[in-house]
């Protein structure tokens, strides 16, 4: 069961101020939530677990940057989402380094994932979007994958609500044709 958001905010602020016991409590309390966040993007359990561990390490090392301007869970969503995307990039790089003869010669790279179970189409679309418009990726992930509301995203990113809505709209417009390839 997840900790009460108010209690978690207070605990995170204590951890950010250097309280090691509070940090241990935060990490224990958020581990299931982080696993769910990573699992939404990386469906293969081992991939999601790798991203979860990376995200928890980031929480432990970056907790001092949490200032309490937004809910801790909002901050956590951004850290975990970015960790899942980073894990995907790492897995993709490792897969490319392996001998390509492991895949059937006629394998379609759009439908054959060398990263078993990952949401390859979405993650690839996010990579394409990041190359041309990196400022659009995080709002899209926070809204459409992590299901945060617009106000939380605005607060987390420190940009006006209208900017968040505009970025999400532009991101959806850019990503939609990339995902349609996989619907056919």
TrEMBL record:
| Listed GO biological process terms | DNA-templated transcription initiation
Molecular function terms in GO for this entry? DNA binding; sigma factor activity
Question: Which superkingdom is the protein from?
Answer: Bacteria
Q: What keywords would UniProt list here?
A: DNA-binding, Sigma factor, Transcription, Transcription regulation
* Residues of the RNA polymerase sigma factor 70 region 4 type domain: 138-174
What's the short name of a Pfam family annotated to this entry?
Answer: Sigma70_r2
User: Does the keyword Transcription feature in the UniProt annotation?
Assistant: yes
Residue intervals of the RNA polymerase sigma-70 region domain: 29-93
Q: In the UniProt record, does the keyword Ion transport occur?
A: no
Q: Which family does it belong to?
A: Belongs to the sigma-70 factor family. ECF subfamily.
Q: Which CDD domains match?
A: Sigma70_r4 (cd06171)
- What is the protein's species of origin? Nocardioides thalensis
Name of the featured protein: RNA polymerase sigma-70 factor (ECF subfamily)
InterPro entries, per this entry?
RNA_pol_sigma-70-like, RNA_pol_sigma-70_dom, RNA_pol_sigma70_r2, RNA_pol_sigma70_r4_t2, RNA_pol_sigma_r2, RNA_pol_sigma_r3/r4-like, WH-like_DNA-bd_sf
